[in-house]
Design brief:
There is one protein chain. With about 300 residues, the chain is mainly α. It folds into two domains: about 260 residues, no CATH class; about 30 residues. It contains 15 helices and no strands. Helix 1 crosses helix 5, helix 8 packs parallel to helix 11 and helix 12 packs antiparallel against helix 13. The longest helix is centred in the C-terminal third of the chain and has 33 residues. The relative contact order is 0.10.
């Protein structure tokens, strides 16, 4: 686990680009008078890019082709763990501090676009994770780990998708009401169950699901047989999916408490006249809804007659 390594050129290029952009952002932010903390820099490089390098260059990357549990564990870590560690460095906040003018407006447009808002929605994450993990129950899993192009695509695309799902939660780039955050919190509990379904099926099946051919050649004596390899992949996938959901639940709870406190303060700051105006506006809307409902009922009765 500690001495096995291989060079992944795609991951190396991604690390160099990410490190260069983050460093340029820190320099630009300091020139603009924004002091960027050392802990954020350390978190981005050591935890974020460091974990990405360990997964890509280390044991999991080296044996991803031959070991099913190394492949599934690599995908799960790239989707859940690496993005969560990268955003500890607050890259979006840094970009906003470093950019100005047209680049900043472009960044805001991208973050507020419907694809990013869709992927940052709490409904999208569990459905995407479930559909992705269900592929591990099919022969597609072996096709993905046996193809060099799919391996490179996974190296780049999976962490990017994970970032798009976790950035709105941790960076708070989208405003939410307390009611919406409550719905997100409930859906996160549903995700705890949904993520476990593919892993449990991998663990309990008594035959190899991806139809991978028997390994040919000289391999270490600790290599598991194909069925045990599949069971190990289910064990680790279940562990990673469940453990990484806990920080999301904590963050959503903290966001709900903060948003609820902010909304309560906003209501307390209203004057009596403003509260009365809001109440009258609410009553007018209720009367309009009731009138529309009564009109529809009357039309339905006339049609029946």
């Amino acid at each position: 686990m500690l001495t096995t390594w291989r060079l992944d050129p795609v991951a190396l290029v991604a690390i160099i680009l990410a490190a260069g952009l983050y460093t340029a952002g820190v320099v630009a932010a300091r020139r603009a008078g924004v002091r960027w903390g050392a802990l954020r820099i350390l978190a981005f490089f050591a935890l974020g890019l460091g974990s990405y390098a360990w997964i890509s260059f280390g044991f999991l990357g080296a044996w991803s082709h031959d070991l099913r549990w190394a492949f599934t564990t690599r995908v799960a870590l790239l989707l859940f763990v690496v993005p969560s560690l990268i955003v500890l460095g607050k890259p979006v906040t840094l970009a906003r501090a470093a950019l100005s003018g047209l680049p900043l407006r472009t960044l805001d447009r991208v973050l507020n676009s419907w694809p990013v808002r869709l992927m940052g929605n709490a409904v999208f994450a569990p459905l995407f994770a479930l559909s992705a993990f269900l592929l591990f129950l099919t022969p597609v899993a072996y096709v993905l780990r046996d193809n060099l192009w799919s391996e490179w695509t996974i190296t780049l695309l999976v962490p990017l998708l994970g970032l798009l799902m976790v950035l709105p939660i941790i960076e708070q780039s989208m405003m939410r009401t307390s009611f919406f955050i409550t719905i997100e919190f409930m859906l996160a509990f549903v995700e705890l169950i949904m993520d476990a379904i593919p892993a449990i099926l991998l663990r309990l099946n008594t035959h190899v699901l991806d139809h991978a051919p028997a390994l040919v050649g000289a391999f270490p004596g600790w290599f598991p047989n194909p069925l045990r390899d599949q069971q190990l992949s289910g064990d680790l996938l279940w562990l990673i999916a469940e453990v990484t959901d806990v920080p999301v639940l904590i963050i959503l709870l903290m966001r709900w408490m903060r948003t609820d406190r902010h909304e309560a303060k906003a209501m307390d700051d209203l004057s009596d006249e403003q509260m009365d105006a809001l109440m009258q506006q609410h009553l007018r809307r209720m009367n309009m809804v009731q009138a529309a409902s009564a009109s529809e009922d009357s039309e339905a009765d006339d049609a029946t007659s």
